[in-house]
Amino acid sequence: GITRHYDFNIQMANVTRLCATKSIVTVNGQFPGPELIAREGDRVHVRVTNHVAHNMSIHWHGIRQMRTGWADGPAYVTQCPIQKGQTYVYKFTITAQRGTLWWHAHISWFRSTVYGAIVILPKLGVPYPFPAPHKELTPVIFGEWWLSDTEAIVSTALKVGGAPNISDAFTINGLPGPLYNCSAKDTFKLKVEPGKTYLLRLINAALNDELFFSVANHTLTVVEVDAVYVMPFTVRTLVISPGQTTNVLLATKPAYPRANFYMFARPYSTIRPGTFDNSTVAGILEYHNPGSPSASSFDKALPIFKPMLPYFNDTNFVTNFTTKLRSLATKQYPAAVPQSVDRRFFFTIGLGTLPCPKNMTCQGPNGTQFAAAVNNVSLVLPSMALLQSHFTGLTSGVYAANFPAMPLSPFNYTGTPPNNTHVATGTKLLALSFNTSVELVMQDTSILGIESHPLHLHGFNFFVVGQGFGNYDAVNDPDKFNLVDPVERNTVGVPAGGWVAIRFLADNPGVWFMHCHLEVHTTWGLRMAWQVQDGSKPSQKLLPPPSDMPKC
Ligand code: C2O
Prior knowledge:
Elements: E1 3-17, E2 20-27, E3 36-39, E4 43-50, E5 58-61, E6 87-93, E7 99-105, E8 115-121, E9 135-136, E10 140-145, H1 150-159, E11 169-172, E12 189-192, E13 197-204, E14 210-215, E15 220-225, E16 228-235, E17 237-240, E18 245-251, E19 260-268, E20 281-287, E21 304-305, H2 315-322, E22 343-354, E23 369-374, E24 377-379, H3 386-392, E25 424-426, E26 429-432, E27 436-444, E28 453-457, E29 462-469, E30 488-489, E31 491-494, E32 498-506, E33 510-516, H4 519-524, E34 527-532
């Protein structure tokens, strides 16, 4: 592999959407930010210089970061933030991954505007395991747009202890599209020719919503998720959670159709309040006929077809889709599912409540403050980065390695609200020795209504060996686990009112964040961290910290 160099200048830029101009944090003045391209096996150096008044850090979502946890990016977990005027060079190697990932700011809610695609091509001369596409299209990144400042929204969410405002628009590559007021000119267009197969990369960078996506009158063949190839399958609509990436093959009509086609993305949610009016981002699939000079642009006289999306809370549709995902499990791309387990964990995932602090108005049930927790613990980020503390052996007062392996007490997670919604705040890590084979069952607690939580694990891919609804049955459910060809990924939806079981091998020393990728839940504390110890061989140890690591 070669070394690819990128310069990321964090700077403000004025952007106008929905008829209002706002100053936002960007990389190099671009929104969405620049695309990173590399081949499997390449080294990547990204020199990030912060020119804005806010502290910043960038996460390379899904990059394994083997032994380079220092470059992972979550603020106060693997690094202190990059302060104004400072530079930090993220250095990492892309190991055994190919497909689409993405990068985003990992501090407060700055990822609302600081994000971009990571395209990982296979090694030179190595073909895709599916028929070669004629062409690759520009990645499609879903996002959300707020008319107000997202930093004000997040501080309200914390101070008032209630739900923050929902976004004003969903976007494709930063563009809300024609279904929003004052937005027709800000419409994403995908230009295609007839009779071709395109590789389309999809990224969900939205802050708080899982999304359905469909292109009218076209099918999508899913070939990869989270930079891992999957057994291809064809759908009209797919589901993508915040944090997830999906590559599809899009086959265009054999002949130039005298029509244009909308693509829609809209939330899947079991709790989102209100109606779903005005929550659809539309883009246009625009055919260009290379043989006809007149057909070079969008023609308003032509009919436009719209896709049909599932109802907003159609959990059956979501389950149907996610259970179709399978690893290739071939000789060339084996599914290295841990067949035996060293340690089993059961985590409850969901919302809870904290007593309302004095002199505050809190909007949680009975005047409480909303919190979110894993096993009744709501993780608090320390003022020093956890990885540095871990590396220097400086734990006392910074964190405790006593994260509970089980919730406080068992209860019926899906029935009437249990009485132990009690949440404790603290910085607790779960310690694993090197190469521990882990099985983790995550159960939605349904405390404030059932809701799906897209859980993201940094530093690893995991295998989704099982999922189901209701309470997890530790006696009978493991018999149904798929240990042959389960999908391998870095972000998985814990089903609304159900559970998911994953397995992974703790072969990457460091401190690794795990959190709900719904930003509001992360803010409320639905986050924890694993502390994976060094192995005994030199090749099994975390590398020493780079000399330009930012200081807190
Ligand atoms: Cu994409 Cu910790 O996040």
